[in-house]
C-alpha cells in the first residue's frame, strides 16, 4: 500500500469516492428498489404484508449484521478482495432469486446471500473514503453516499419498467447482472497506509526497532508465509483489542444506542411508501415516481449537508446537524398518515429524502469524530452491525400492525417516534457532557478549590478521572503538586 503521513485529501482519493459512489448505487439503491417488488411478490405468492416484508428485512439485516465481517476481510486481507467477493455473492443471490418458487426461497437467495454480498462491499468502501480524506471528509462522504439517492432516482422507474416488460423474474435477473459492477468498484480501492495506523501495531512488529539480521529473517518469513506473524497468538489478541477498544468509549456507546432507534424508524418507510401510495389511490407509475423523487432529493441532502458541515462554523457541530436531520425525518413520518393523495405525498418525498441523505452522509463522519480515523473501519462495521436487528424486525412489525389495524397509521407513528427518540437521546447526552465539562472547569478556576485539589493527591486523582481526554489536556500538575496553569 501507498504510505502517507496523513490523509491526502485528493489525488486517487477522488477515485475512491467514485468507487464508493458506485458501491452505494449497487447496494443501498438496489435494496431500496426491492420495495417495488413488494406488491408483485405479495400477489404472486398470495401472502400477507408481514410475511412478504421479511424479504426486505432479511436483505437489510444481513447487510448490516455481516458488516463486521466486511471490515475484518478489509483489515486483514484486502479491501479489493472483499468488495469483489461481495459483488459475486450479491449477483448470485439476485440471479438465483429470479428462479424462486416460494417466499422461503427468496428469504435465502435474495435475503441472506445478496445481503451477505452487500455487507462485504458496503462498510469497507465507506471506510476507505475516511482513510483518504480529513479536511474535506464530509464533502467526500456527501458525494460518495449520494450514490444511494441517484441510484434510487434512476433505478426506481427502470425497475418498474423491467417488471412490466419482463415480469419480476426478468427484472431480478437483469439486476443480478447490474450488481456485478461491484467487482469493478473493488478494483478501484487502492490500499493506503497512514502514519497513525502504525501506532496501533505492537512493538515487536515495528521494523524500525528490529536489528538488521532480524529484519532479513522477517522479510524471508513474509515472503514464505505472509500470515505467520499476522496470525500469531500474541499479535491476534493485541490487534483484536486495539481494533475494538472504542467499544468502551462513552461517546460511542451513546451513539450506538441512538443508532438502534434510528434504524428501527427509517426502515419501514422504504418498504411501505409504495404500498401505502397504492392504497390511497396513487397509480403504479406515480408510486415509483415518489421513490425517484425521494432518491434525487437524497442526493441534494448528501452533498449540501456534506459541504455545509465541512465549513468552519459547523464543523464542530456535526453531532447536532446529525441529530437535527434524524429528528426531522421522524417528524415527516408522524405526518405521513394524513397525506392521502399524490400532490401531498410529493412534498413528503422531498422533505424526507433531503434529511435522509443528510444523516446518512453524517453517520461515518460522526463515527470518525468519536473513534478516530485509525479505528474507523472497525467502528463502521459495528455501527452498521447495530442496524441489523432493527432492520430485521421493524418491517415485519409494521406489516403486522397493518394486517391487524387495517391502516398504516400505527406503523408510521411508531417509526416517527423511534427516530425522534434517537435524536433526543443524542441531544441529551451531548448537553449532559457539556454541562459536566463546564462544572469541572468552574471547579478548577476557583482558587480555594484549586489549592485543595492539587495539595491532596487523592482528590486530584478523583477530579481528573472524571475528565475526558480533551479536558485532561486542559490541566497539568507540576512536580510540587500544584496547578501549573
Automatic annotation (TrEMBL):
Signal peptide: none annotated. It is a multi-pass membrane protein. It holds the Pfam family MFS_1. GO terms for molecular function: transmembrane transporter activity. It catalyses: guanidinoacetate(in) = guanidinoacetate(out); creatine(in) = creatine(out). Its main location: membrane. SUPFAM superfamilies: MFS general substrate transporter. The keyword Ligase does not apply. The chain crosses the membrane at residues 12-31, 81-100, 106-127, 139-163, 169-189, 252-275, 287-308, 320-339, 345-367, 379-402, 408-432. InterPro entries: MFS, MFS_dom, MFS_trans_sf, Proton-linked_MCT. One of its GO terms (biological process) is creatine transmembrane transport. Residues 12-434 form the Major facilitator superfamily (MFS) profile domain. Gene3D superfamilies: MFS general substrate transporter like domains. It is found in: Basolateral cell membrane. Keywords: Cell membrane, Membrane, Transmembrane, Transmembrane helix. It comes from the Eukaryota. GO terms for cellular component: basolateral plasma membrane. Belongs to the major facilitator superfamily. Monocarboxylate porter (TC 2.A.1.13) family. Functions as a transporter for creatine and as well for its precursor guanidinoacetate. Transport of creatine and GAA is independent of resting membrane potential and extracellular Na(+), Cl(-), or pH. Contributes to the process of creatine biosynthesis and distribution. This is Monocarboxylate transporter 12. It comes from Lophotis ruficrista.
Amino acid at each position: 500500500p501507498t504510505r502517507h503521513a496523513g490523509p491526502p485529501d485528493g489525488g486517487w482519493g477522488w477515485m475512491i469516492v467514485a468507487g464508493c459512489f458506485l458501491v452505494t448505487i449497487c447496494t443501498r439503491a438496489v435494496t431500496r428498489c426491492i420495495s417495488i417488488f413488494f406488491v408483485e411478490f405479495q400477489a404472486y405468492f398470495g401472502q400477507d404484508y408481514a410475511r412478504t416484508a421479511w424479504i426486505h428485512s432479511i436483505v437489510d439485516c444481513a447487510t448490516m449484521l455481516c458488516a463486521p465481517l466486511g471490515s475484518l476481510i478489509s483489515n486483514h486481507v484486502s479491501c479489493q478482495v472483499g468488495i469483489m467477493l461481495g459483488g459475486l455473492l450479491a449477483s448470485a443471490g439476485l440471479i438465483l432469486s429470479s428462479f424462486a418458487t416460494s417466499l422461503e426461497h427468496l428469504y435465502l437467495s435474495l435475503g441472506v446471500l445478496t445481503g451477505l454480498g452487500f455487507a462485504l462491499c458496503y462498510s469497507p468502501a465507506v471506510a476507505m473514503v475516511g482513510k483518504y480524506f480529513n479536511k474535506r471528509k464530509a464533502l467526500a462522504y456527501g458525494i460518495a453516499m449520494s450514490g444511494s439517492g441517484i441510484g434510487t432516482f434512476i433505478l426506481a422507474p427502470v425497475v418498474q419498467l423491467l417488471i412490466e416488460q419482463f415480469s419480476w423474474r426478468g427484472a431480478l435477473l437483469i439486476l443480478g447482472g447490474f450488481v456485478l459492477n461491484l467487482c469493478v468498484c473493488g478494483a478501484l480501492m487502492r490500499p493506503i497506509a497512514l502514519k497513525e495506523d502504525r501506532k496501533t501495531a505492537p512493538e515487536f512488529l515495528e521494523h524500525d526497532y528490529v536489528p538488521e539480521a532480524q529484519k532479513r529473517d522477517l522479510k524471508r518469513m513474509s515472503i514464505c508465509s505472509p500470515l505467520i506473524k499476522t496470525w500469531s497468538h500474541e499479535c491476534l489478541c493485541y490487534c483484536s483489542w486495539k481494533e475494538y477498544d472504542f467499544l468502551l468509549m462513552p461517546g460511542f456507546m451513546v451513539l450506538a444506542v441512538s443508532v438502534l432507534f434510528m434504524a428501527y424508524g427509517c426502515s419501514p418507510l422504504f418498504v411501505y411508501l409504495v404500498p401505502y401510495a397504492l392504497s390511497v389511490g396513487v397509480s403504479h407509475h406515480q408510486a415509483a415516481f415518489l421513490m425517484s423523487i425521494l432518491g434525487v432529493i437524497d442526493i441534494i441532502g448528501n452533498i449540501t449537508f456534506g459541504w455545509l458541515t465541512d465549513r468552519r462554523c459547523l464543523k464542530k457541530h456535526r453531532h447536532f446537524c446529525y441529530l437535527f436531520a434524524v429528528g426531522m425525518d421522524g417528524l415527516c413520518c408522524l405526518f405521513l398518515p394524513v397525506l392521502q393523495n399524490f400532490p401531498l405525498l410529493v412534498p413528503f418525498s422531498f422533505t424526507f429524502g433531503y434529511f435522509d441523505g443528510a444523516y446518512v452522509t453524517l453517520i461515518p463522519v460522526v463515527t470518525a469524530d468519536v473513534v478516530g480515523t485509525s479505528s474507523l473501519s472497525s467502528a463502521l462495521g459495528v455501527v452498521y452491525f447495530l442496524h441489523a436487528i432493527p432492520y430485521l424486525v421493524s418491517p415485519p412489525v409494521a406489516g403486522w400492525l397493518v394486517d391487524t389495524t387495517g391502516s398504516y397509521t400505527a406503523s408510521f407513528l411508531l417509526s416517527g417516534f423511534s427516530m425522534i427518540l434517537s435524536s433526543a437521546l443524542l441531544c441529551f447526552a451531548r448537553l449532559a457532557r457539556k454541562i459536566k465539562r463546564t462544572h469541572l472547569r468552574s471547579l478548577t478556576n476557583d482558587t480555594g478549590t484549586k489549592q485543595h485539589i492539587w495539595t491532596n493527591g487523592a482528590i486530584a486523582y478523583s477530579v481528573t478521572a472524571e475528565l475526558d481526554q480533551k479536558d485532561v489536556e486542559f490541566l497539568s500538575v507540576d512536580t510540587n503538586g500544584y496547578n501549573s496553569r
